[in-house]
Amino acid sequence: MNFDKSKKLYEEAVNYLPGGVNSPIRAYKPYPFFAKRAKGSKIYDEDGNEFIDYCLGYGPIIFGHANETIVEESIKQLQLGTDYGVPSEKEISLAKEVIKRVPSAEMVRFTNSGTEATMSAIRLARGITGRNKIIKFEGAYHGAHDAVLVKSGSGAAGKPDSPGIPEDTTKNTILVPFNDEDELTRIIKENKEEIACIIIEPIMGNIGCVPPKDDYLTFLREITEENDILLIIDEVITGFRISKGGAQKYYNVTPDLCTFGKILGGGFPIGAIAGKKEYMEQFTPSGTIYQAGTFSGNPMSINGGLTAFKILDDKFYKDLHNKGEYFRNEIRAILNKLDINYQVNGVESMTQIYFTNKEVYDYKTAQTTDTKGFLKYFHNLLENGVFIAPSQYECTFLSCAHSMEDIDKTIESIEISLKNI
Ligand SMILES: Cc1ncc(COP(=O)(O)O)c(C=O)c1O
Q1: Does position 290 have pLDDT exceeding 70, yes or no?
Q2: Which pLDDT belongs to residue 20?
Q3: Residue 355 in contact with residue 392, Cβ under 8 Å?
Q4: Per-residue pLDDT tens over the stretch 50-77
Q5: Is the CB of 234 under 6 A from ligand 1?
Q6: Could you list the residue range(s) of the whole structural domain that residue 363 is in?
């Protein structure tokens, strides 16, 4: 495969964009391919190469690229204006659609990204409880804001992951391992009446794909209720992907607050905080906890979300989930055939192969993987016409645009790619 044009563009880009990209994960070595266009399950680069896309913009593109209904409805909206600076009726309609589907949602505040949503949800929890400490899980990603850019060291106040974040900011962020009831119980006891909220990715999608163990989320709901701690479920990845009502509906656990992004905008930038009315009303201007955004609730993203909800019906999920099941079974069959003892984790349309023979159920076990081998696999897949996220710690997504033929072709590429590591 020839990547000459992408190489040239990358060499130019590094002069104008830090690292040549606008989000760091995109900058894989030696240089990323530069996209020219995308349609359905395929993404095409500047050199004319075609890839079956399982990165899907890191999750939002659940209908495949340039879905016709989304395109048509977006063109109509474009002609009606792209930013009003005053409220519009469609914002109420989209809030109603979210409330209809999501068990914990009684009110919604729209933002422009998942980062803004989790940042505001944490501020809301701190404002409501008057407490400063928060608990997050090792390896969980909730966006690029200071309070949550902390990954390392279990059971202690976390050190910032990045220069520029004062340790004072993260001293109130306590890390715990995922799927570990004892450690969380201990931490809560140790910090009694000091913790504002626990924020959790219900399926950890930023260390690959790690589902909660049986009843773990129920345990979390119970312990937070017993200790007057607000539970925030971050559904930026899982929202409207894992089920109509997100992971909270799927696992039957109702948080106090939840956050969304990705799929909610139908392919346009968006985020949202949703939750109990008594809490949500504490946001400005009905309350005093400040939250704002120039583009928040902008008509393109809101209209994208409304169009998305017209397509996301029961049949949609059934078909998508069946494809996920098939995809994982076929991968397992290949691994068996090649006598490779790697782990395949997944829930519905989220999947990841871990390059390790150990079960992966949290951040530490995810780190037992051969990440170098995984990168070789990533490049082998590219050479064989398949694009996945360039990291062991992301997951692959399926869209309704992926045909069975696409998946079968991908399985062949996976076999070749694994053989050639
Ligand atoms: C679980 C989770 N929360 C929050 C975010 C941040 O969302 P955004 O990139 O839209 O700011 C992400 C991004 O991938 C995410 O995966």
Answers
A1: yes
A2: 98
A3: yes
A4: 999 999 999 999 999 999 999 999 999 9
A5: yes
A6: 4-62+314-419
Cα separation of the two ends of the chain: 18
Q: Which of 121, 63, 44, 69 is nearest to 319 (CA)?
A: 63
Phi, psi of 308 (to 5 degrees): -55, -45
Q: Give me 413's structure tokens.
A: 């590429």
- How confident is residue 153, by pLDDT bands cut at 50, 70 and 90? low
- Asked whether 342 and 357 are in contact (CB, 8 A), the reply is yes
User: Does the Cβ of 356 fall within 6 Å of ligand 1?
Assistant: no
| Distance from Cα 141 to the centre of ligand 1, integer Å | 7
Same domain, 124 and 20: no
Domain count, the chain: 2
Cα 320 to chain center, whole Å? 17
37 and 87 share one domain: no
Distance 16 CA to ligand 1 centre (A): 25
Q: Which of 281, 311, 341 is the last residue of a domain?
A: 311
If asked whether residues 296 and 400 sit together in one domain, one would say no
384, amino acid identity: N
205 and 125, same structural domain? yes
45 lines ligand 1 (CB under 6 A): no
Of 109, 73, 70, nearest to 260 (Cα)?
A: 109
Q: What is the CATH number of the domain that holds 166?
A: 3.40.640.10
Contact 249, 238 (CB under 8 A): no
At 411, the pLDDT band (50, 70, 90 cuts) reads very high
22, 55, 142: residue to mutate for ligand 1 pocket, most atoms within 8 A of CB: 142
